[in-house]
Amino acid sequence: MSEHDCDIAGRPAAGEPVIRLENVWKEFAGNVVFRDLTLGFGRSATTVVLGPSGVGKSVMLKLILGLLKPDRGRIWVDGTEISALSERDLVPIRTRFGLVFQGAALFDYLTVRENVAFPLREHKDLAEGEIERIVREKLALVDLEGTEDLWPEQLSGGMKKRVGLARAIAMDPEVILYDEPTTGLDPVTADTINEMILRCQRELRTTSVVVTHDMASAYKVGDRLVMLHEGRIIADGMPDHIRDSRDVRVQRFIRGDASLSAGAPNG
Amino acid sequence: MCPHGYYTLMRESKDPRYVRLRVVPSARRLRPKKRDFAVAGEGLHRPPRRIRITIGARRREGAPGAEQRVFLIQAISRVGLYVADQVEGLGRFGVFTGQMFRWLLTDATRWRLLRPQLYQVGVRSLPVIVITGAFVGMVLAAQSYGQFDAIGRASWVGAVINVSVVKELGPVLAGIMLAGMVGGALAAELGTMKVTEQIDALRAMGADPIKHLVVPRFIATFLMIPFLTVYCDFVGILGGYLVSWGYGVDTHEYWMHSADVIENFDVFSGVLKSTFFGAAIALISCYKGFQSRQGAYGVGMAALEAFVSSFVAILVLDFFVVLFLNGVYDLLWGRVAIFV
User: Fold this and answer.
1) Does B200 touch chain A (CB under 8 A)?
2) Which of the two residues, A237 and B288, has the higher pLDDT score?
């Protein structure tokens, strides 16, 4: 995306947002995670949501999928308000999403093949040969050919995340949500995951939402960066815009320097 | 309102930006002081400058019986919270059971999901059930032989062993062993799946966790427990016979007396009873797994609670099913004395 495709505040000029959180409040046992959060995610763009641990990034993904309900506010997906839908009515919405979990969340009672085939068997009436073809294709996309018969316990952390990604894209979703995709991985494996995300974005033209606190990953995959702090958005814009932010909280986070004070020079 | 339900703690701020304020006790003691409370504000752009906390507005210091009254109110409040908690838990279990039966009746379970569960419940627990059943039969023979021999009716020992095993010990022991082995394992497995977000992953993919995880486990336990009960009965009877034979009891008389007292209805009622136990074990254990708290301790507690609750449920169900089946038997055939 070029410099000209952004508005005056540095936000990328994506189309009508496919997902929109409107005045969302969420609280857990007295701990307020979101205070009046309003945020939209544009179509076919990769938005990275940044913030320290515990700021509610994963909660936001679960709210988008209806796995959690907001205390107040509304969540829209392509013009449908999902915060009021029942579990059964959410199913058609959820099939349009793919979620890559922080810990991969592979079903440990199923092989890699069955894990990737799971959403296909659940929602599509396909012949075994067709399922096998899709599984192979998706595993090839994440460079894991030949691992079909392995069990999740036989995989390394990076491989698990890649199988999680293959499972998330098995149904060719319109939106892929990534929950801390590079956390806990060595830098090289983390970069491989970033490449996978970019490849999926390039080849599948999906809308992606990545929540992370890994700045290298954020700069690499993000078209737009949003930073959360104490339940609110404190920065929202293209990577360069965030990098040049004068907000000390933003600078503290992106530089990883807790000692940075309000008076310190930026840049 | 304070969670203790006693102190009037809230005082408004005149700040127009005030949205909602709660006063949260940060320490519990009989005579709270102001520092024991923290103020939690929500939706405040800037916290109000001054919040007045009034403690013990309705409490008169030094009044006779004040301490006792506080104690009593706190005790009642605790009992109330406990009861409300239990009722809420029962309600959740009811909803869970309802959802399970809805999926069970409306959607066919896939063989792919059911087969490993049948193997897990039916085959994996067989050795333990066989050993338990055999030793119970043997112990029964060892315990009762002396008394029967003393009155010169040693061959009647078979009747006692077989009635006890077929009507009561077979199904109950099979149930208890299954609660320990399968119930604990189910709760731990589903608890771990919850902790590792596998249950969220199912929901995120538009699959219902109850349909996928609970229904196959319920069907497997429900279908397998009658077979396990029959095995338990069989080895119990065999164990009892071998010990009696060792004591020198006549084989022909042993089996003749046994056949005299055991009716088809006894075998049927034992097996029927076991299906109730199987249903209870599966439902309770899966529910406990789904309710598991985070971490190794949470999963461990879920497994423990699953076993204890299933165990209690088996004994309670046993009593009521026996009452019911006795009523059915009396209605159909009238009461008959076994030992005459």
Assistant:
1) yes
2) B288
